[in-house]
Queue: 2 jobs
Job 1
Amino acid sequence: MKELVYKIADAVSGGEVVPIETAHISGVSYITIGEYGTQFLEHLASLGARVSVFTTSNPSAVDIGGALSVDEKIARGQERINKALRTMGVSTFYSCVPYEFVLTRQRTFHAWAESSAAAYINTFRDAWSDKNPGPLALLGAIAGFVPRTPLYTLEGRRPTALVEVKVGPLGSLEAGVVGALIGEKVGTGVPYVRGAVFKDEESRREFVAALSTYSAIVFAVVEGVTPNWREYREMWDPTDKVVISEEDVNAYIKEAGDVDAVYIGCPFADVDTVLWVLGEVSKRGAAKRPIYISTSPSTLKQLGKLVEKAAELNVKIFAGSCLVVSPHTRRFSSIATDSFKAAYYIPRLHGVKVVPCRRERCIDLAYG
Ligand SMILES: C[C@@](O)(CCOP(=O)(O)O)CC(=O)O
């Protein structure tokens, strides 16, 4: 596998590579990679390929507690993927927020394939990762190194565009809209973001998820927030400025119509978000329409008995999968969500309509 990574490096980074501490692979759901992707993983495993660094995996098509129904064919396909990954030594923890437990120190190298997770550690920790495509992250995990693309160099992390955010503090939906707008307006390079105030952890997750979904950008310097932001600031003299106003953000937020379900947790929800939803729902009684919350397996465990209590209120908390990569999503015709990443992928992967709304409004829609 090392030769293969060197070959790719010849094409993309003048043959240079960087050693990595950890890898995170995406494209591990039978829904997104299908039969050929599954055979590719099985083939690698049967050749004796084994990861040489700690490697985690993105959500799968099947959640760990069986809260989402999937048909036999998908369940069997997913089991084959799980087996191939386990054989190669991948931690089959199935989470899109591995940064909850892999604490990626500043300026250490990682090969993460999930764009929102790579963008999170770049932006909020100044740990260095490019968005490596899923197969390359896996080959890199096996080899122990990846091509030295610009984001693995200080020079390649030099800001290229100044963005002034004139709206906030940003809740989860607004943070996603601001991320998407920066992505669309700046497109590539490294935005230097001034004035962004995130209300909570979920907003930070939504910001980087939307930024990296709506553009190729997986690193933003957020003034006052990104470690070493002063150093990045001094590296460059801004010429152009992009402004994100309250009107820009409001133009993206439509008044929602009828929905069959509400979805929170793309990227996976933290405990705080789950508690907030449960607090709102407890005040009103069981929701008329199901509220789905995806979390990491450890968050689900930490919640303990609350998961059953939530189920009585029609709040389905599940882990290891999400409504982006699970076929369960196809049973709905319209879903409300505060996630701009989910709003991008769910219609494209499942043909299901998505209504982006603020979290408070999403909860209202579960009763409307
Ligand atoms: C569906 C999926 O491709 C979502 C997109 O991920 P990304 O933003 O392209 O890293 C994730 C996956 O396949 O693991």
Note: The CA atoms of residues 254 and 348 lie 19 Å apart.
Job 2
Amino acid sequence: MVQDIVFVTGNANKLKEVQMLLSGSDINLSNEPLDLDELQDTDLQKIAVAKCQQAVQVLGAGKPVFVEDTALTFQEFNGLPGAYIKWFLKSMGLEKIVQMLDNFPNKSAQAITTIAYADSEGKIHVFEGITDGKIVPARGPTAFGWDPIFEPLESHGQTYAEMTKEDKNVISHRGRAFAKFNQFLSGN
Ligand SMILES: O=P(O)(O)OP(=O)(O)OP(=O)(O)OC[C@H]1O[C@@H](n2cnc3c(O)ncnc32)[C@H](O)[C@@H]1O
Ligand SMILES: [Mg+2]
């Protein structure tokens, strides 16, 4: 059965990837481009759940809706910038983010997408996808966020920005989170 589900995001690049990731499923996806408040926290699930609760409040209860929050965590910094990567990116740019790690040999990072989905009864379900990689000097087009400085371990030396969207989706944090979400929805 086809399910109508709303994805609340103001990020067009995200939306494009999510549309691709859900294209084979029985979901009739629509987008509400609201810029929701984001809780200041290092707990990624808490952030996603609060964002989802806010989306339900704005759109009204009873409509299945989901949000996702994406973080970039540096192992050397015990998880930071994490969800704050958005503001680092806006204020400093990619080059300085890479330079933050100049004095540290440990460049390990994780890209993490946390989806929070409110079903028609208002129950919230959370799904997470993680991709391990490292931070490198920018390579590839700067079309989407920090894609040029994240090199996943499984990519044979390419940054996300150097990969096609199709290839990125196979190994990405977002791809993994949405694979779980898809499986959940198809079982419902
Ligand atoms: O409306 P929402 O969905 O919250 O969209 P947003 O742009 O605010 O997104 P986040 O709060 O999840 O912040 C994540 C930051 O990381 C960036 N980002 C998210 N996913 C990414 C990906 O797969 N590759 C590179 N950058 C990404 C994004 O542009 C933001 O700067
Ligand atoms: Mg946001």
Note: The first strand starts at residue 3 and ends at 8.
